[in-house]
TrEMBL record:
Protein family membership: Belongs to the bacterial ribosomal protein bL25 family. CTC subfamily.
Span of domain Large ribosomal subunit protein bL25 L25: 8-96
GO cellular component, one term: ribosome
SUPFAM superfamilies linked: Ribosomal protein L25-like
Alphabetically ordered keywords of this record: Ribonucleoprotein, Ribosomal protein, RNA-binding, rRNA-binding
Protein name: Large ribosomal subunit protein bL25
InterPro entries: Rbsml_bL25/Gln-tRNA_synth_N, Ribosomal_bL25/Gln-tRNA_synth, Ribosomal_bL25_b-dom, Ribosomal_bL25_C, Ribosomal_bL25_long, Ribosomal_L25_dom, Ribosomal_uL5_bac-type
PANTHER family reported in the protein's UniProt record: RIBOSOMAL PROTEIN L25/GLN-TRNA SYNTHETASE, ANTI-CODON-BINDING DOMAIN-CONTAINING PROTEIN (PTHR33284), RIBOSOMAL PROTEIN L25_GLN-TRNA SYNTHETASE, ANTI-CODON-BINDING DOMAIN-CONTAINING PROTEIN (PTHR33284:SF1)
Assembly: Part of the 50S ribosomal subunit; part of the 5S rRNA/L5/L18/L25 subcomplex. Contacts the 5S rRNA. Binds to the 5S rRNA independently of L5 and L18.
Domain Large ribosomal subunit protein bL25 beta: 105-188
Taxonomic superkingdom: Bacteria
Length: 207
């Protein structure tokens, strides 16, 4: 279940400061910095189109990347900040943080829902209402799960699924202490209308 670590190819950037950053942008690159792990910050630049494609694919900030710089050892990083142009909403600067294999880090992990066909509530026409498609978890850099799984087997209309109902991988824990809601099985509109009608009829009979 460990997540495959994708490569992110960047270039070392010789200069620092606003002038060097502007030069990188003129060349179709996005300037950035890699910091952390007790080492000196390293200026880098990323191909603009490549970065934009990855950003638009989603989950960029929740992904552990294998950062590749020519002539240097690969390093594992997570993105900590993407600055954008306030008008065009396009990336203008990016920050990465280096990680050890044993570093603990907070990342948003995707939630998968399985066994829809085994949920009586869904068979009756109920709707799976996903409250949190991703959950922020504290994970170890070397063991980042690709997703966490919710088993819908036996779930009825009205059932609510909380984080404590999910078996998390070893060493993984939520960043929030409370038992928050992940999803619920909502009644179909027709069934809700019937229930409301029955309730109203019952009240009329009692009156």
């Amino acid at each position: 279940m460990a997540k495959e670590i994708p490569d992110l190819v960047v270039e070392a950037r010789a200069g620092t400061g606003k002038g060097a950053a502007r030069q990188a942008r003129r060349e179709g690159k996005v300037p950035g910095i890699v910091y952390g792990d007790g080492k000196d910050p390293q200026p880098i630049q990323v191909e603009f189109n490549s970065l934009l494609t990855k950003l638009r694919a989603g989950r960029f900030l929740s992904t552990l990347w294998n950062l590749k710089v020519e002539g240097q050892e690969d390093v594992r990083v997570v993105c900590r900040s993407v600055q954008r142009d306030v008008v065009k909403d396009l990336p203008t600067h990016i920050d990465f943080m280096r990680l050890h294999r044993n570093t603990r880090v907070n990342l948003f992990i995707h939630v998968n829902f399985e066994n829809h066909e085994e949920a009586p509530g869904l068979k009756r026409g109920g709707t799976l209402v996903v409250v949190r498609p991703e959950v922020e978890l504290m994970v170890t850099a070397s063991e980042i799960p690709d997703h966490i799984t919710v088993d819908l087997t036996g779930k009825q209309i009205g059932d609510t699924i909380h984080i404590n109902d999910i078996e998390l991988p070893k060493g993984v824990k939520p960043t929030i202490d409370r038992n928050f809601v992940i999803a619920n099985i909502a009644a179909p509109s027709g069934l809700r209308s019937e229930d409301n009608a029955e309730a109203a009829e019952g009240e009329a009979t009692e009156a």
